[in-house]
Write a structure and sequence with these properties.
Elements (H helix, E strand, L loop, with lengths): L2 H9 L5 H8 L2 H7 L9 E6 L5 E5 L14 H12 L2 E3 L17 H6 L4 E9 L5 E9 L4 E10 L4 H17 L7 E9 L2 E8 L6 E6 L3 E6 L5 E6 L6 E6 L5 E5 L5 E6 L5 E6 L6 E6 L6 E2 L7 E6 L5 E6 L6 E6 L6 E2 L7 E6 L5 E8 L2 E8 L5 E3 L7 E5 L5 E8 L2 E8 L4 E6 L5 E9 L5
Parallel strand pairs: 2-3, 2-4
Antiparallel strand pairs: 1-29, 4-5, 5-6, 7-8, 7-30, 8-9, 10-11, 11-12, 12-13, 14-15, 15-16, 16-17, 18-19, 19-20, 20-21, 22-23, 23-24, 24-25, 26-27, 27-28, 28-29
């Protein structure tokens, strides 16, 4: 390894810690990037909004007092829709009567409020303690029903149901699927303890997947959301693990001579791309999800790292300095000749695809500041989306509309999101804690 290059990158505070890790593989770089642990749900600050926002009223569902959590269902739905930037949730305090059924709706009240949509409903507690949640959404202008959903779930699932309802409302009014009923993964550090957490997209219901006194990096969701791949240094070297989110069972997938890092799942979940220093330098390989069938994909004298499969599984995109500066390249997933993808800017790394295959996001060095960029793969147009100077680890929401990434604000690591048009931004922060390495998981199925 070139120590001069390594120290220059560290001194310059390179934002992509995996790239620095490939060049140095020393835990001090990772320790520099973390501070205190995340203890509570993420606090969300929203800025910006779409030019046209849909005015909608989200009414209380009259939950029984003994099953209300810190947030009521209508509040969760409202926060989801407001956070998307696509909706303006109306203040209903001046409306004389708030209906819970369609028969009770006085449409003149809601046209006077200039509401385009109205969500109503009720929650009943069943004999066995479950919740029966009924929600109706109507088009106020046409006075017609748009949506009626009923869920019977345990009280512990009420937040998930609220997110699912918000997804349905979002899709009815925008024609695009929502991404509120999803989970995220991220890494925190408390003292010398690193923790890989999984939480709802808004930071609630956080659970620890794995914890270690050594660094944990590069979480990657399996396409079906049932497993997580990640890199752990618990054996004093980077090793790739795959862990079941249902049973907790985990297995070593890549523990070869040298370093093992940067796992990325193939779209069908059958294999992963990984980076190994199996030879003299970092190269990209594929390996079956059970750790068998290792195949080398790239063969160069340069550093090839940060693989990402294209949504059709035909190509692997990756970061490489084979042209002298870090840029993004692609290679057939079975191996072969690589071709350069990014040409604007002297430094582009960390490629990640939108699930629909229309966009590629990555990190660009823009005059010394590391920002999230998005490239329209149809037109080739590139747009810088983030406003920070130390942004990293971009990850698309499953509906391809929003990108989550890690950034630093006031010397503290935090997460942020931005829509692909750059109009709506959110910052997700923890009181007194630093968080890194976000990965946005796939949509979850409705509870049965």
């Amino acid at each position: 390894m070139n120590n001069i290059v390594t120290m220059t990158r560290v001194k310059s505070r390179l934002i992509d810690n995996r790239w620095a890790l490939i060049n140095a593989f020393c835990t001090s770089i990772l320790v520099w990037m973390f501070a205190n642990p995340a203890q509570a749900a993420l606090e969300i600050e929203i800025s910006g909004g779409s030019a046209i926002q849909i005015p909608i009223a989200i009414l209380p569902l009259n939950e029984p007092a003994n099953v209300q959590g810190k947030s009521r269902i209508h509040e969760i739905i409202s926060n989801d829709l407001k956070g998307s930037g696509m909706f303006r949730v109306l203040n209903t305090s001046g409306v004389p009567s708030l209906p819970t059924t369609a028969a009770q709706i006085k449409y003149t009240d809601w046209t006077a409020l200039k509401a385009q949509g109205l969500s109503i409903g009720e929650v009943q507690q069943t004999a066995n303690g479950n919740l029966k949640i009924n929600v109706q959404v109507v088009d106020v202008l046409r006075q017609t029903p748009l949506l009626q959903s009923t869920y019977t779930v345990s009280p512990s699932q009420y937040r998930h149901v609220a997110h699912l309802i918000a997804d349905q409302i979002y899709e009815k009014f925008t024609g695009q699927p929502g991404a509120f009923a999803t989970r995220i993964a991220y890494v925190t550090k408390a003292g010398k303890r690193f923790t890989l957490q999984i939480a709802d997209y808004d930071g609630f219901n956080a659970q620890t997947l794995v914890s270690s006194n050594e660094p944990i990096i590069s979480p990657a969701w399996a396409p079906d959301g049932s497993k997580m791949a990640y890199v752990s240094f618990e054996k004093k070297k980077p090793i790739v693990f795959v862990q079941s989110l249902y049973t907790g069972e985990r297995k070593v997938v890549a523990n070869f001579k040298g370093n093992n890092s940067a796992p990325a799942w193939a779209p069908d979940g059958s294999k992963l791309a990984v980076v190994l220093t199996y030879g003299a330098n970092s190269q990209i390989y594929t390996i079956s999800a059970d750790g068998s069938n290792l195949q080398q994909v790239t063969k160069s004298s340069s550093i090839d790292t940060e693989p990402a499969f294209s949504p059709d599984g035909q190509f692997i995109y990756f970061s490489s300095d084979r042209g002298g500066r870090p840029q993004i390249y692609k290679v057939p997933a079975s191996g072969g000749s690589a071709s350069r993808v990014t040409f604007e800017g002297g430094y582009n790394v960390s490629p990640r695809f939108s699930p629909d295959g229309k966009y590629l996001t990555y990190i660009r060095n823009d005059g010394g500041s590391f920002k999230v960029a998005v490239q329209d793969l149809g037109s080739g147009d590139v747009k810088l989306l983030s406003t920070g100077s130390q942004d990293e680890s971009p990850s698309f929401a499953p509906n391809a509309r929003t990108i989550m990434y890690a950034t630093r604000v006031g010397g503290k690591g935090t997460l942020a999101t931005v829509t692909v048009d750059g109009l709506v931004r959110q910052r997700l922060s923890e009181a007194g804690g630093d968080i890194r390495e976000p990965a946005w998981g796939p949509a979850q199925a409705a509870p049965k």
